[in-house]
Design a protein that fits this description.
mainly beta, 69% strand
């Protein structure tokens, strides 16, 4: 499931377990700039690829506002890059913007909004859920998702969400997906929560937005904290669609996070849209992440994923992805990163045409990020300490 689905499912647990917020507000701003060098041995995701290197500069600004009722975060970045390939040298190679808002209108009700925008010359960067590679062309993606959670009994809450996603790829049309979700969650005990979710999707036809495909899924869910650091979740049920009939919908996850070791496993059998492919497509895949913080300032992480998609035309593309990342933060505002990634993809879609070509891609990168942090906490005026010392500290 995508981020909006996860937000909907876990919003209920958050509404059920919400504690009284401290009478204090916090404002934070993090301007940043990342300078990096990338070597890519297959810049255009072809069977016989051209290698190249790029120097990138990424300014960014992250903000956060946290009050007893409102939590608001945002991030905006864009990339400028210089490459030995003239076509890849550009001031505005990538843009990313996102905003997340959660507002507790009453002790029982929480309203939320998630919005995200991406524009890139590398469409595979937007296909995060599938990892599918495609040739370099300008692509953009919008996603907006309002949601809510309401607790009407001490251990029972209802949730709802609407998610709209629009993607476009130069010379290949657009893809649009709308999802409506409604659910109910019940806390069984201090560690377990059971949920029910009804989910309807509509996929617009790229050539005619007035027609398209529809599906309806009914899911049962279980979320269990089996240790102070470990949690397991499973959501599954039948899904019936106008284009493939009856199929399963499954989302499973396992996490284990401690100061010395962090791990996560996930599996999905679902449907989505992919840039460059006439959709919807069936996605069957999973991933694993492991992080080893050797010291307070150093960590190494591994991210693995295998995703297979089945298209409406009866083709299958399978992507295998492995990434290693080393990070060192000596203190203050500096972070140094080094990464290595490898992709192996069976099958390819170029300008809407499927081929059986196998694609290999290796990427090496190093970067340094400078990110000063500015923050301010403000106590509520009715706090005795605030009245004595002023409302800010």
């Amino acid at each position: 499931m995508n981020r909006a689905a996860v937000t909907t499912i876990f919003a209920a647990a958050g509404a059920l377990c919400a504690a009284g917020a401290a009478a204090q507000s916090h404002i934070e701003a993090v301007p940043s700039v990342t300078v990096g060098s990338i070597y890519d041995d297959n810049l255009f995701a072809q069977q016989q690829g051209d290698a190249g290197h790029m120097l990138t500069v990424r300014p960014g600004l992250g903000t956060a506002i946290d009050t007893p009722r409102l939590n608001l975060t945002s991030l905006f970045t864009f990339d400028s890059q210089h490459s030995n390939h003239a076509d890849l040298t550009m001031i505005d190679a990538r843009r990313h913007g996102d905003a997340n808002m959660k507002y507790r209108s009453t002790d029982m009700t929480t309203l939320g909004l998630m919005a995200q925008y991406d524009r890139t010359e590398t469409p595979g960067e937007i296909n995060l859920g599938t990892g599918i590679l495609s040739d370099r062309r300008q692509a953009q993606r919008w996603e907006v998702s309002p949601n809510f959670a309401h607790r009407f009994l001490p251990h029972t809450a209802i949730t709802g969400a609407y998610d709209y996603t629009a993607e476009s790829l130069v010379d290949n049309g657009t893809g649009r997906m709308q999802v409506v979700r409604a659910g109910i969650s019940q806390i069984a005990n201090a560690r377990s929560t059971y949920s029910g979710l009804l989910q309807e999707r509509h996929f617009a036809d790229p050539t005619d937005a007035t027609i398209g495909s529809d599906s309806l899924a009914m899911l049962g869910g279980w979320d269990h904290q089996f240790s102070p650091a470990g949690r397991v979740s499973l959501y599954a049920g039948p899904r019936i669609s106008s284009y493939r009939g009856l199929q399963p919908e499954i989302n499973a996850g396992l996490t284990h996070d401690t100061p010395r070791f962090k791990a996560g496993l996930e599996y999905n059998h679902t449907e989505t849209i992919v840039l460059g492919i006439r959709g919807p497509v069936v996605l069957n895949g999973g991933g694993a992440r492991f992080t080893f913080p050797f010291r307070r300032t150093t960590e190494i992480s591994s991210h693995s994923a295998v995703n297979a998609i089945d298209t409406l035309d009866g083709h299958r593309l399978t992507n295998y992805r492995q990434t290693f990342i080393a990070s060192w933060t000596p203190g203050g505002m500096y972070t140094f990163n080094a990464s290595y990634g490898i992709d192996y993809q069976q099958g390819n879609v170029r300008r809407g045409i499927y081929t059986s070509t196998d694609v290999w891609r290796h990427i090496f990168g190093v970067s340094v990020t400078v990110a000063p942090r500015y923050s301010r906490s403000i106590k509520e005026p009715d706090d005795p300490a605030a009245r004595a010392k002023g409302v800010s500290k």
